[in-house]
Amino acid sequence: MGVERVRRYCLSFPHATEQVQWVDDLVFKVGGKMFAVTPLEPRGVYLSFKCTAEEFGDLTDLPGIIPAPYLARAQWIALEREDALPAAEIKRLLRKSYDLVFAKLTKKSRTALGGGGAR
Predict the structure, then answer these.
(1) Residue 119 belongs to a domain
(2) Residue 98 three-state SS
(3) By C-alpha distance, which of 9, 74, 71 is closest to 45?
(4) Is position 117 within any domain?
(5) Is 90 exposed, middle or buried (0-12, 13-18, 19+ CB in 10 A)?
(6) pLDDT band at 110 (very low <50, low <70, confident <90, very high)
(7) Structural domain range at position 50
(8) What is the pairing mode between strands 65-67 and 47-50?
(9) Is residue 82 part of a domain?
């Protein structure tokens, strides 16, 4: 699942936006809050996103998956390479990340977004 496919998939979520931050990171957000990050220039991490505390422990035990630099305390993981997980699993986890972040938005923010978002 290449960066462009990740981009198209993340932007298919209701109210998802993208923004280049920190020079060359493509950041996906909902309600101004990040739910996924991918570098635009190749480096040690392919994709980072939020997960549940349970998934965090299970996923970081797998080869090619590490606690996300700077974000691990908030249960973010980082895939070191594109093939660390099957594409379908990456999609499931990206949607889960989006849902987790959307659920934590304030009621005011969710209302401003039309209440849509998490399924």
Answers:
(1) no
(2) helix
(3) 71
(4) no
(5) buried
(6) confident
(7) 3-112
(8) unpaired
(9) yes
How distant, in Å, are the alpha carbons of 7, 54, 64, 119 from that of 13? 11, 24, 26, 10
HSE toward the beta carbon, residue 40, CA cutoff 13 A: 11
Query: pLDDT tens-digit profile of 53-108?
Result: 999 999 999 999 999 999 999 999 999 999 999 999 999 999 999 999 999 999 99
Q: pLDDT tens, 2-47?
A: 889 999 999 999 999 999 998 889 999 999 999 999 998 888 899 9
- CATH number of the domain that residue 40 is part of: 3.90.1150.30
Q: What total number of domains does the chain contain?
A: 1
Residue with tokens 């923004």: 19
Tell the residue number behind the tokens 């422990």, with chain if given. Answer: 57
The helix (run of H) or strand (run of E) holding residue 55 is helix 53-60
Unique residue bearing structure tokens 């299970």: 58
Of the candidates 66, 65, 106, the one whose C-alpha atom is nearest the C-alpha of residue 84 is 65
